[in-house]
Amino acid sequence: MAQTAALVNEYTLPQVFSNKTSAPSRMTIREYKKIGEGAFGTVVEAVLRYEDGGVLSEQNSSSKSGASNKNLNNGGATTSKDEWLGPFAIKRVPAQTEYKSRELEILRVVQHPNIVSLRFFFDKKSSSDNKIYQNLVMECLPSNLQTEIKFYRQSKYTIPYPHMKAYTFQLGRAMLYLHGFGISHRDIKPSNILVDPNTIRLKICDFGSAKKLEPNQPSVSYICSRYYRAPELIVGCSLYTTKIDIWGLGCVVAEMFLGKPIFQGSSPESQLKEIAKLLGPPPNTFFFKSNPQYRGNMYTTKLFSCTIEERFRQIFSNSPADAIDLLMKILVYDPEQRASPKRVMAHAFFDELKSREFKVYPRGSSTPIELQLFNFSDFELGLLGPYKDELKIH
Ligand SMILES: Nc1ncnc2c1ncn2[C@@H]1O[C@H](COP(=O)(O)OP(=O)(O)OP(=O)(O)O)[C@@H](O)[C@H]1O
Ligand SMILES: [Mg+2]
């Protein structure tokens, strides 16, 4: 993650709300590093301290602070004055805009090992423009997939395959959970996928575009960053499903193998052309099912002479056969044919992860770590159905 200018900004607020208990507390916030700048807001790294003796439950759910090395688990009901909680990432976005963000609403209900967790939230007026900003205090991860892909690309490598498998599996697992609630993230891309290269953990972030999709209720199709936008969105489908996120997942997996985005369209329409260069011309039924009113270029001329399978093998010439097979099941025009999260998770590409002997070595370490990838909740087991038998360690 790009580490920009150091800053120290410390302030005390009378009402910082706990996500767990919804209770307000008087807290001091110390911001010391800018870690992200997006289209909608700023993300800073910070530590927080209770000024009125916060509740123990918060201490236990927080990691140790970078600013204080004291063990927070003091067994008492309150924290003392010099105990900082964190580090956290605080995302700050304007509270009222014409664009409806459901980020707080969604982050308050989701709880999953592969989704960034919200710890606190508060509103604050900015002294520079007098506007109210919403602040989301989240657990902080050291990197994201965009940074990792770039890091390896610079040294002409790819992310090691065992890491790729573990990351992709966790991404599929996050989608199984979100889609189980009908929530679509709608902005899947490498920079919105946080990772910790020391533990190979992955968590989806940036729920600024997320929405619970209701059957037969239209949603805007102009959503999702262009390179990762599903073909049905490109042609203006408004009754799309959570499968748009699976397309994004496929693009992210492809990017881990290629080191660069797979479909780099220079305009919204030419994005479809880039896709057609791999998948061939979209079938007429695709346009009809997605948006019968579509009048744009349909790219009906086949742009390559071989079969689609051969085309995949050409483009992913250095990638293993099981990875190519997975991508061929995800990168398909018809969202109904596109793999579901459970089908993704049950794919042979992840077989290695299910072996009792599987261990992963974090970057630069000779000590292997074990990953907890199959500790499914009852909710997840229910969503997996018969697939759960394939998703066990043997
Ligand atoms: N919890 C976190 N821990 C560490 N870094 C984070 C966290 N949340 C966000 N970031 C960093 O800040 C960046 C911007 O955050 P986010 O994507 O939520 O904001 P955004 O304004 O919606 O961005 P964009 O519009 O560019 O997608 C992320 O790409 C990531 O690098
Ligand atoms: Mg983002």
From TrEMBL:
UniProt domain Protein kinase: residue ranges: 29-350
Q: What PROSITE patterns does its record include?
A: PROTEIN_KINASE_DOM, PROTEIN_KINASE_ST
Show the SMART domains listed in the entry.
S_TKc (SM00220)
Q: Output the Pfam families linked to this UniProt entry.
A: Pkinase
- Which spans does this entry mark as compositional bias, Low complexity? 60-77
Q: Which domain of life is it from?
A: Eukaryota
Question: Which residues lie within the region annotated Disordered?
Answer: 57-78
The keyword Kinase is assigned to this record: yes
Q: Which UniProt keywords apply?
A: ATP-binding, Kinase, Nucleotide-binding, Serine/threonine-protein kinase, Transferase
Spell out the family assignment given in the record's similarity comment.
Answer: Belongs to the protein kinase superfamily. CMGC Ser/Thr protein kinase family. GSK-3 subfamily.
Entry-linked PANTHER family: GLYCOGEN SYNTHASE KINASE-3 ALPHA, PROTEIN KINASE MCK1
**In its UniProt entry, what is this protein called?**
Protein kinase domain-containing protein
Species this protein is from: Lodderomyces beijingensis
